[in-house]
Design a protein that fits this description.
Elements: E1 10-17, E2 21-28, E3 33-41, H1 44-55, E4 62-68, H2 75-83, E5 89-91, H3 93-103, H4 111-124, H5 135-168, H6 172-175, H7 182-190, H8 194-198, H9 202-211, H10 218-229, H11 237-269, H12 283-293, H13 302-309, E6 313-318, E7 321-327, H14 333-349, H15 351-362, H16 367-388
Parallel strand pairs: 1-4, 4-5
Antiparallel strand pairs: 1-2, 2-3, 6-7
Length: 398
């Protein structure tokens, strides 16, 4: 007597993400179309419509949901799908674009076609569900990226201040070694023009001396006044108005950065994060690194972490000729930026890293290339610490 075994098959659910609506296509592993492309809105009613369609499928069969990683547009959908009890896979848009090129020569591209393409792509690759991110990782990613954006804004405002001071008092910034110290910013905010600076009195000097903690000497004070009297700058009401406006913007952005940094530090203090124990990696940099990598359990080798940061070298091979190429620079640009910047501080705090840097320089590598090797070494260190939950030990660095 033969007993029929239950047949298990897979539903592939491809979703094309857009700003106000999404498109969905469902097929089986044999290519049978279960539900042709339909559109649902990016709101609760639309999400409920998607859920009802998925729940109408055979509950005994496997369901694999996939969509491209498209920044913040997927966040609400990911949370909704997870809360409904389903997993999903985020796809690299670069890979899906190459898959499209490999499967058709047509140049047509629509949201409906993309939903079908994503379902087909899901059938061709191993299904790796996205882990649900821990709250603190998700929060850190939002906060660190916002901070990075504000830091760039602050730098832009400093450039604007420099340009205006070059017109108003061109001798000012060279006097302060081309940096905006607390003392320099105070002078710009309260005096700004050469005329006002040249008329400063003893009371003004006392304030400057306290701000600089004694570093702004009486000799410097008199030298600055002399420069102001002899300045070739052009003071005008319009330039002063522009300068005051940019300074307010700079101060507002700077205050927001301080608030964000305090919140990031508060979150980091509540969790044991091994990356933060590395000498030379500051708490804010560690927060950015951990936030961008997310769940370290999804990385099986350091090479995967290097690829995620875009730090792996390309390889050119033809016949018997094989040579390494340039850094691929794909993956998270924010992560790569932080890793390369942190590598500079590692040279200061870690003798082993500095010796390795000098070795690469002696081999003829440029500063940037040698620094990229330090970043790769750092990633391997992070992999070991995070995967084994260890604290950094200088004596173990090789």
């Amino acid at each position: 007597m033969r007993i029929d075994q239950e047949v298990i098959f897979v539903y592939f659910i491809g979703i094309d993400i857009a700003k106000y609506k999404h498109d969905c296509f469902i097929a089986t592993e044999t290519g049978e179309v279960v539900r042709n492309t339909f559109t649902f809105l990016n709101d609760r009613s639309g999400f409920q419509h998607l859920l009802s369609v998925i729940q109408d499928l055979d509950p005994t069969q496997i369901k694999r949901i996939g969509f491209e990683a498209t920044s913040h547009y997927t966040e609400n959908l990911k949370r909704f799908i997870s809360q409904a009890g389903f997993d999903f896979m985020e796809l690299n848009p670069v890979l899906t674009a190459k898959f499209r090129s490999a499967t058709t020569l047509r140049r047509s591209k629509t949201d409906r076609m993309d939903a079908q393409l994503i379902a087909l792509y899901l059938m061709s690759v191993p299904y790796k569900p996205c882990p649900i991110p821990y709250y603190h990782i998700s929060a850190l990613k939002s906060l660190t990226r916002l901070r990075a954006s504000l830091v760039r804004q602050r730098s832009h405002h400093l450039v604007q201040i420099t340009n205006l001071m070059d017109a108003i008092f061109p001798e000012f910034k060279p006097f302060f070694n081309h940096s905006f110290t607390v003392t320099a910013l105070y002078l710009i905010e309260n005096y700004a023009t050469p005329t006002k600076i040249s008329n400063m009195n003893t009371k003004s000097y006392e304030i400057l001396r306290r701000l600089s903690r004694g570093r702004f000497s009486c000799a410097k004070f008199l030298q600055l006044k002399t420069l102001a009297q002899q300045s070739v700058g052009n003071s005008s009401h319009v330039l002063e108005l522009e300068l005051a406006s940019v300074l307010r913007l700079y101060r507002a952005v700077d205050e927001e950065i301080v608030r964000l940094e305090n919140e990031i530090k508060t979150i980091m203090a509540k969790h044991d994060i091994p990356t933060a124990s590395i000498h030379g990696v500051g708490i804010l940099s560690a927060a950015s690194i951990v936030a961008e990598y997310g769940d370290f359990n999804r990385f099986e080798t350091p090479a995967q972490m290097l690829a995620y940061a875009g730090l792996e070298p390309s390889i050119n091979q033809s016949g018997i000729t094989r040579s390494p190429g340039h850094m691929v620079k794909r993956g998270s640009s924010e992560l790569r930026f932080v890793l390369l910047n942190v590598s500079i501080y590692l040279l200061i705090h870690n003798p082993v890293y500095y010796a390795f840097y000098q070795k690469k320089r002696n081999e003829g590598k440029s500063h940037r290339v040698a620094l990229s090797h330090i970043a790769k070494k750092l990633v391997r260190m992070i992999f070991k610490l995070e995967k084994e939950h260890l604290q950094f030990d200088m004596s173990q660095v090789r």
